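Q: Sequence in, structure out?
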Amino acid sequence: MKYDYDAIVIGGGAAGLTTSGIAANFGAKTIMIEKEKLGGDCTWTGCIPSKTLIKAASVVHQMNKSEAYGVGVSGVEIDTARVMKHIDHVRREVYEDADRPEIFEEMGIEVVSGRGEFTSAREVKITDSTGAERTISGRYIFLCTGSSAMVPPIPGLDGVDYLTNDSLFEIEDLPNKLIIVGAGPIGIEMAQSFNRLGTEVNVIDMAPGILSNDDPELTAMLKESLEREGVQFTLSASVERIDQSENGVVAEVSVDGERKKITADRILIATGRKANTGGLNLEAAGVKYSKRGITINDKCRTNQRHIYAAGDVTGRYQFTHMSEHMAKVAATSALIKVPMKIDHKHVPWATYCDPELAHVGATEKELIEKGVSFETYRFPFSKIDRAITDGATTGLIKIYGKKWSGKVLGASVLGAHAGEMISQYALAMKNGVSLRDFADTIHPYPSYGLGARRAADQWYIKNQSATLVKWIKRIFRYRGEIPDYSDPNRIV
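A: Exactly. Output:
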């Protein structure tokens, strides 16, 4: 009873909103401090506006390829101002429905607009926009301040009017030419969307490929698909300098020792995220942190037993769904002492380009490096009837599993609705559903989910043998031909 609050939550993004809601649900006296708008990066500068832009771009793309479906649509016009107004409308709708302060105040949470910083291990000073200050104390303190765009120290960049995801959705006119530095999820999603809206896009990255955390076979297929649409790539390239020019920007890059200049109207820096630890005065609380973020254990607890951190600020993951998961772990571990831990084994992610690219569990590379015995079960989207009807046959499902037990170790999916399909494999892994159980589960036809099941069917196919079939044929006196089981790439 000697503390002002049972739970002080600093940050009102995905992690902070979830932490506050759980704390209030447990009956804890809770205060949530946010210096800008509730909803954080996801609602205002990340997931919601980017996926809304992706949808707008996909509508244009479908109209432009309508002849492929026997439908003639002509005269596609793009009103940039209306597109950007629509994006703003959608994110405000999400804010009103899920993030506005009144929703949390009705839960009994005190919502404060201001900046929170430690003055001691138990006390937090709140400074509002007018400069007024108040200091409060908390039994438990949760740090959920998220992350922001990481801008590398490229010579000349300080003098350039560059874009990041924080400013991208505030532009009023689409550039004719756009340079994107970074071939990660943000860079790839935005490259395809702007290209589909009529912008000439060139993606620059120091890596030899795109989306380095994903399966290289699938990323190569995706890159080819994007190139067919018109996206340009300058890979294995180091950016030596970026300058503002009279007509836009100039990026000087080095590729295999050769320097060249790439010009554009605007440049988007999409080189990753950095944890928002500045301004918290973590030293006053004795909380350990590094350049990566706040140091936590698998219960999301810092080196101070009453201080927890969740989400991007920890530097562990940069996914909204993981921010929510970590917030649940932190709040539950702290407030009701249930021994929850971060689930490292079943972390799914998806890049929402077209086709989508998603993954869960161990990668093929990780399994090989660890010496794990496994089989890879493959199934192409060209054999999924729903993909054929939709004209979306580019893609491949790869499942990594144990040969005899059918235990799922990981999965990668490139294709339409891969972000939805990967959830089936995440559920299977989390709950011990084997590929045999998966294959024996009825899925509706025609659906993309059925494609996920047909990929699991390949476990049955690979575990059959000519010897077994010969015995079956002999016992039941069958007269048909025995399939060729010697082909390791046989798909049924």
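The chain has a mean pLDDT of 95.
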